[in-house]
């Protein structure tokens, strides 16, 4: 199983980035997907997740600014991030789990991470 995250980069505060995660080696449509992030010196935290059927959940920090979506035909999950803040700076990881509980607690699979840096 591979989860290949991409789309990170340097952006000014208030800007936008779109992260993508391409999955292979698993029946993508059967998995719930999530995005996590880990800021320097902090623990990894969940940002958003989406069920196999498209139901979404956002943490308070992401609500209203980030949008998670998936394309089961292309085996991809994306995270559109708008109104970015310096505190959004982190390495962002995509994750896959057979259930939402698994995605939220101990994902079955992790991507390699993509760095997002938001300058003030």
Quick structural gist:
The protein is 5% helix and 51% strand.
Helices and strands in order, then pairings?
Blueprint: E1 2-6, E2 9-12, E3 17-24, E4 32-38, E5 45-50, E6 56-58, E7 66-71, E8 76-81, E9 90-97, H1 100-105, E10 109-110, E11 114-119
Parallel strand pairs: 2-11
Antiparallel strand pairs: 1-3, 3-8, 4-5, 4-9, 5-6, 7-8, 9-10, 9-11
Structure description:
The protein is mainly beta and 120 residues long. 5% of the residues lie in helices and 51% in strands. It has one helix and eleven strands. The protein has one helix at residues 100-105; strands spanning 2-6, 9-12, 17-24, 32-38, 45-50, 56-58, 66-71, 76-81, 90-97, 109-110, 114-119. Strands 2, 4, 5, 6, 9, 10 and 11 form a seven-stranded mixed sheet that branches. A four-stranded antiparallel sheet has the order 1-3-8-7, with no helix packed on it.
Ranges where pLDDT stays below 50 over 5 or more residues in a row are none
Number of helices: 1
- Structural class computed from helices and strand pairing: mainly beta
| Amino-to-carboxy terminus distance | 37 Å
Largest sheet: 7 strands, mixed
Number of strands: 11
- Rg measurement, Å: 13 Å
Q: For the residues shown, what is the average pLDDT?
A: 97
Shape label = globular
Q: Give the fraction of residues assigned to helices.
A: under 10%
Q: Write down the secondary-structure element order.
A: EEEEEEEEEHEE
- What percentage of amino acids are in beta strands? over 45%
């Amino acid at each position: 199983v591979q989860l290949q995250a991409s789309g990170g980069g340097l952006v000014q505060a208030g800007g936008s980035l779109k992260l993508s995660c391409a999955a292979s080696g698993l029946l993508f449509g059967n998995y719930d997907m999530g995005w996590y992030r880990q800021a320097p010196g902090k623990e990894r935290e969940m940002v958003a997740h989406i069920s196999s059927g498209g139901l979404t959940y956002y943490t308070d920090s992401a609500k209203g600014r980030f949008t998670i979506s998936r394309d089961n035909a292309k085996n991809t999950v994306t995270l559109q991030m708008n109104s970015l803040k310096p505190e959004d700076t982190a390495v962002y990881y995509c994750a896959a789990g057979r259930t939402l509980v698994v995605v939220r607690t101990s994902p079955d699979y992790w991507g390699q991470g993509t760095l997002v840096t938001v300058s003030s």
